[in-house]
Specification:
The protein has two domains: 91 residues, RNA polymerase sigma factor, region 2, helix turn helix motif (Rna Polymerase Sigma Factor, Chain: A, Orthogonal Bundle); 85 residues, Orthogonal Bundle (Arc Repressor Mutant, subunit A), CATH 1.10.10. It has 190 residues and is mainly α. The chain contains nine helices and no strands. It is 74% helix and 0% strand. The longest helix has 23 residues.
């Protein structure tokens, strides 16, 4: 664990209220992205983010510091998301979920022409739709790597698998996505 995280962790263990605020502000965006991707719904994602931090604060005494705080929080969030998906199916349609996730994950880009912007959005939606069809563990690794910018080692720790297995999951996911994109006709027909 990096020294600055170790200091924050010590402050958390001692009950420092400012440390709780710092932890939440620092890691909330990353945890939210994970939750939003898995739930497909902003409100459910916010609820799970809150539960993630509540559980983390309750378990701060049990955290051994063998991983980074980001990895620990991501693992808690992923477990809650998997429980959420298993226990409850949302009432919104898949299309509504995809649109919300795409909007939340679209990076800010310099203005382009309307046709180029439409193509970019359609491609992002196609990719997101294909990502949702990947096997669960490949999808988890792919989302952590490409949507949350996590390193292989962090993904390995979060998923409790070897770095080689993470690389294998990522490779299979990318190959599957490339094949699916190549096989699918262009949305605009050009």
């Amino acid at each position: 664990m990096p020294p600055e995280e170790m200091e924050l962790f010590r402050r958390l263990q001692s009950g420092d209220v400012d440390a709780v605020r710092i932890l939440f502000e620092e890691y909330r965006p990353r945890v939210y992205r994970v939750c939003l991707h898995y739930t497909g719904n902003a409100e459910d994602a916010r609820d799970i983010v809150q539960e993630t931090f509540v559980r983390a604060f309750r378990a701060v005494g049990q955290f051994r510091g063998e991983s980074t705080l980001a990895t620990w929080l991501t693992r808690i969030a992923m477990n809650l998301c998997l429980n959420f998906r298993r226990d409850r199916r949302t009432a919104t349609t898949l299309l509504d979920q995809r649109e919300e996730v795409v909007r939340a994950n679209m990076p800010p880009v310099a203005p382009r022409g309307p046709e180029e912007e439409l193509r970019r959005r359609e491609m992002a939606e196609r990719i997101l739709g294909l990502v949702s069809t990947l096997p669960r563990r490949e999808r988890m690794a792919f989302v952590m790597k490409f949507y949350n910018d996590m390193k292989i080692k962090e993904i390995s720790e979060a998923m409790h698998i070897s770095e080689g297995t993470v690389k294998s999951f990522l490779h299979r996911a990318v190959v599957t996505l490339r094949k699916a994109l190549a096989a699918a006709p262009d949305i605009r027909g050009s």
